[in-house]
Write a structure and sequence with these properties.
The complex is a heterodimer.
Chain A: H1 7-24, E1 32-39, H2 48-60, E2 65-70, E3 75-79, H3 82-95, E4 100-107, H4 112-116, E5 123-124, E6 131-138, H5 140-161, E7 166-172, E8 175-180, H6 183-196, E9 200-207, E10 210-217, H7 219-243, E11 250-254, E12 258-264, H8 269-277, E13 281-286, E14 297-302, E15 308-312, E16 317-318, E17 322-329, E18 335-341, H9 343-354, E19 360-377, E20 380-398, E21 406-409, H10 415-426, E22 434-442, H11 448-498, E23 501-502, H12 504-533, H13 538-570, H14 573-604
Parallel strand pairs in A: 5-23, 14-20
Antiparallel strand pairs in A: 1-3, 1-4, 2-3, 6-12, 6-22, 7-8, 8-10, 9-10, 11-12, 13-16, 13-19, 14-15, 17-18, 18-21, 19-20
Helix pairs in contact in A: 1-11, 2-3, 5-7, 11-12, 11-14, 12-13, 12-14, 13-14
Chain B: H1 10-31, E1 34-35, H2 37-40, E2 42-49, H3 55-64, E3 71-75, E4 77-85, H4 93-102, E5 108-116, H5 122-146, H6 149-172, E6 176-177, H7 179-209, H8 215-247, H9 250-275, H10 285-288, H11 294-300
Parallel strand pairs in B: 1-6
Antiparallel strand pairs in B: 2-4, 2-5, 3-4
Helix pairs in contact in B: 1-6, 5-6, 6-7, 6-9, 7-8, 7-9, 8-9
Classes of the chains: A alpha+beta, B alpha+beta.
């Protein structure tokens, strides 16, 4: 019979509806301000006694705790207000040592039965809800020093290949100085080096027992290096934040040497802080031979044992040459990181390993850290940061054969460390170390007034559409409006399930896809009217209307969906967010227009001997 | 039902399109887009109040003093305020802002004033541009596959036409272009494509059904048949957009303008660019229906 659905189709639609309702429900519960404590890289979760100390310290500070939750890898303290949250963070951070990361957070308050179904609310974007704000400072001096170290290493390489003997290199501020046996060696070196490094100002100096060449970076070169460092860090931080899967973040430069990172709403802020602030990098170096002169070697400790090894000062490659890195497990179930090098990195690695088969090569893990001390200055407490660099060998292995573009690193502490190291290598290293200067929650960037007006206008817009459909298509308009409601629930459910972030443009995007959903219904209804005019019976007209409108709807929606998918795969940040909303909207609107309204039409008028349609 | 002779007026429409495109391109070349805080960066001012202020008052005070594109946020606690302005940084801005806010009688101290960089990095800009090009290419392939390559050319030209005119309008009237407007332009692409495909679909159907070869007449029929749908859809969309424009407040205002222009131009271009272009491209019935094969000839033989 015409216009009847088999039972399973009705059941399928009901099932989709039920799932949609459940997963859109969490959005009705507001989030609590909270403080999250999680272990620093590879450490232990907060112990029960530490937690008790935290709780009593909060009670002493007169900060009421709403609840305490212990997760698999973190502890969450829920609080009543944002100002309590700031104070609580200060108290907890002061109490715990460096083994734990303390971060402010907005915790969802989804009831547990919903959370058991893995339902969680949509994150509201920085414009609607605000989020966490990290201010990071880029260590500009370190950027210059790092560049000088690389340059000095290249200079030594040149001198060695030209067989000019040098004694010592020293880096101080923006100056590299090298000692030579005599003035002739120095002059020869100067003419050789100055060809490759035009950015330096060269000066001769006297040294005890020989001659010294001092090379100072020009102001312009220093500016360029610092500019490069901050831009490189911006790119890297953007990559890292995107790798974390944070939708709609904000990463921007602030002032000459700072970077702001803002992350919206309910996120694992502690993890974000660890990854954003991580300065880990790798260096690959050869082990020194017994006869290597002392000034070319450096003694480093292993990370996992007190053993030490004598390594060459010269670095073969650093983590910067890594083009991709993934985490996996070796035969024994220990974590490892698989690394692919870029072209130049691969060539350098191949050249170094080919001529050194049988020697040991070390993988060195470098981390820039700071010690914060509070000192009294002019009667006010002031935090002084002392940066220091930690270098530790994670593996020392014999080179069996020449290495190419891809290989793996073992010897890591934990799967988490392997995952974070691979993420850091993938997203590129920082050109200069960064330090957290400030961490705050930040309010919505749109004023409450603007948000209210925006939401009001969207509601009125929707009401207008609903009224229009009712007026124009009467009973069928009602069906289309019910489908519109279903569509809205489904989009919200899908966005919540995907963990998408809702921003004001996103809301507007949803309204637009609702408009497109209406369009599909309009197409069908107009077609039914047309078929009625050509004299088809009611049931035939309904059937033909859906049938003929089908290709139009599918073609139009699929083309738009293609655009959305491409924007998603290539675009970043806000473009990506918009693409997600649009794709979901298209899929749900096709479902509601083609299946849900059809089911309702079939249920109400399908198969009945009607003479006239209310359309 | 009344029939409009759409195709008869196509010369006038082509001229209108050409003039609009020309104005848009000249304006884009001469005075570019007036890019917003998201793209240009500006100045950040952090102030501390003695008692928590109303953010809307802060915003209004600054707006009244002629600052543009202002975002005001609480920062940590309710009495610490973070202000971002689209204003080239100079050392006095911080003091200027603080003085303005003090004029209201509040106790305000300046914590810091610094420049902030663009939220949209160059990398993002380049990637988005590339994304658009790839998207256009894939759409062209898809339309060529589902319809025919002449349709693909028409659809793409219509899309580019719409985007250039929307951007041109923003440049001409120097309306601020920020990330929200960028989202609107992407939405215009979606909308315009949707509209074009619906008209194309009807044209294809009519060419296959009809017995005449008079393309302008077939096109007119197709456009007239989809006209009520086009008006209903554009009508509802414009209703929503008008609501956003009038009631939505500052942030949605420009978004609504972009889409209103886009929907208008998009509807126009589905008829007069995408469809009318098929005439100079010499679309024929044989492009959609494979030419009769030999076996049909065989039947006619005695």
């Amino acid at each position: 019979m015409l216009n009847r659905y088999p039972l399973w189709k009705y059941l399928l639609i009901l099932l989709v509806l039920a799932v949609g309702l459940v997963y859109s429900l969490p959005n009705l519960f507001p989030a609590d301000p909270a403080v999250q404590i999680s272990p620093a890289s590879g450490g232990e979760n907060l112990s029960e006694s530490q937690l008790e100390r935290v709780q009593s310290a909060l009670a002493d500070a007169d900060i009421p705790l709403k609840s305490t939750e212990r997760g698999a890898n973190s502890v969450l303290l829920r609080l009543d207000s944002a100002s309590d949250q700031m104070r609580a963070r200060g108290v907890v951070d002061g109490l715990l040592d460096d083994d734990h990361v303390v971060a402010v957070n907005l915790a969802e308050s989804t009831p547990s039965w919903l959370r058991d179904l893995a339902a969680s609310p949509m994150t509201l974007g920085l414009d609607l809800r605000g989020g966490v704000h990290f201010l990071l400072e880029v260590d500009m001096d370190a950027a210059v020093t790092q560049r000088l170290e690389v340059n000095a290493s290249a200079m030594r390489e040149t001198l060695r290949s030209e067989r000019i003997r040098y004694r010592n290199t020293e880096i101080d501020g923006r100056t590299v100085s090298m000692d030579f046996m005599n003035a002739e060696d120095r002059d020869e070196a100067k003419s050789l080096i100055s060809r490759d490094f035009p950015d330096f100002q060269y000066a001769d100096a006297e040294a005890d027992r020989g001659a010294r060449l001092s090379m100072t970076l020009s102001d312009q070169a220093v500016d360029e290096i610092q500019d490069y460092a901050i831009n490189q860090n911006l790119t890297t931080l953007r990559n890292r934040v995107n790798e974390l899967g944070v939708a709609e973040p904000l990463v921007q430069r602030q002032g000459p040497n700072r970077i702001v990172v803002e992350l919206p709403g309910v996120q694992d802020t502690a993890a974000a802080k660890r990854v954003v602030g991580a300065t880990a990098n790798l260096e690959f170096r050869l082990e020194a031979r017994p006869d290597t002169p002392e000034q070319e070697t450096e003694t480093l400790q292993f990370r996992s044992s007190p053993r030490t090894a004598e390594l060459m000062r010269d670095v073969i490659i650093t983590g910067d040459s890594v083009s991709s890195a993934t985490r996996s497990f070796d035969e024994n179930g220990r974590p490892q990181v698989n690394i692919d090098l870029d072209g130049t990195g691969g060539t350098l690695m191949n050249r170094a390993t080919r001529s050194n088969i049988g020697r040991n090569m070390a993988v060195v893990f470098i981390e820039h850290k700071t010690n914060d001390r509070t000192v009294m200055k002019d009667g006010k407490p002031e935090v002084v940061r002392d940066p220091y660099t930690e270098r530790g060998i994670i593996s020392l292995a014999t080179i069996q054969s020449a290495l190419g573009n891809s290989f793996r690193i073992t010897g890591l502490d934990s799967p988490t460390e392997a995952a974070e190291l691979s993420l850091l290598l993938r997203s590129g290293s920082l050109a200069a170390p960064i330090y957290f200067v400030q961490e705050r929650t930040i309010g919505p960037s749109l004023g409450q007034d603007n948000i209210d007006r925006g939401i009001l206008s969207v509601q009125i817009g929707l009401l207008l559409v609903v009224a229009f459909m009712l007026l124009r298509y009467k009973a069928f308009g009602l069906i289309a409006n019910v489908a519109l409601g279903v569509n809205l629930v489904l989009v919200i459910a899908a966005m919540s399930m995907l963990g998408a972030t809702l921003t004001l443009p996103g809301i507007a995007g949803i309204v637009l896809t609702l408009g497109m959903a209406v369009d599909a219904n309009v197409l069908i209804f107009e077609r039914i009217r047309e078929e009625l005019r050509t004299g088809l019976s009611v049931q035939q007209a309904i059937h033909a209307g859906y049938e003929r409108a089908f290709t139009s709807i599918v073609d139009a929606n699929l083309t738009t969906l293609l655009v959305a998918l491409i924007l998603f795969s290539i675009g970043t940040g806000p473009v990506k967010g918009f693409a997600v909303t649009l794709s979901l909207g298209i899929l749900t609107s096709m479902f509601t227009a083609l299946m849900v309204t059809r089911a309702m039409v079939n249920l109400t008028v399908g198969g009945k001997p009607l003479k006239k349609l209310w359309i | 039902m009344r029939q409009f002779d759409f195709m008869g007026k196509r010369r006038l429409a082509f001229t209108t399109s050409a003039v609009m495109l020309l104005i848009a391109l000249v304006s884009l070349a001469v005075q570019q887009l007036s890019l917003g805080l998201d793209f240009t960066g500006g100045t950040l001012v952090e102030v501390s109040y003695h008692t928590a202020p109303s953010l809307d008052t802060v915003r209004q005070t600054l707006e009244a003093a002629g600052f543009q594109d202002i975002s005001v946020q609480t920062f940590g606690t309710a009495d610490e305020i973070l202000i971002r302005l689209q204003q080239a940084f100079d050392p006095n801005v911080g003091q200027q802002v603080t003085d303005l806010l003090r004029a209201g009688g509040d106790q305000v101290t300046l914590v810091r004033a610094e420049f902030v960089g663009a939220q949209v990095g160059e990398q993002l800009r380049d990637q988005s541009g590339l994304g658009m090009l790839v998207a256009l290419g894939v759409v062209m392939l898809y339309v060529a596959f589902r319809f025919q390559y002449k349709f693909a050319v028409g659809a793409i030209v219509a899309l580019i036409h719409d985007v250039i005119i929307v951007l041109g309008a923003f440049s001409l009237f120097q309306i601020e272009f920020d990330l929200t407007v960028l989202a609107a332009v992407l939405a215009v692409i979606g909308y315009s494509l949707n509209d074009t495909i619906i008209v194309y679909d009807r044209i294809r159907e009519n060419i296959r059904l009809s017995r005449i070869d008079d393309m302008p007449a077939i096109f007119n029929d197709a456009i007239n048949q989809t006209l009520s749908r086009t008006l209903a859809t554009s009508g509802t969309t414009i209703l929503v957009l008008l609501a956003l424009l009038v009631l939505g407040g500052d942030m949605i205002h420009n978004f609504a303008i972009a889409l209103l222009i886009g929907v208008g131009v998009g509807t126009f271009s589905s008829i007069y660019v995408a469809s009318a272009l098929l005439l100079p491209l010499k679309l024929q019935r044989t492009d959609l229906i494979p030419a009769p094969k030999e076996n049909e000839d065989a039947e006619e033989l005695p």
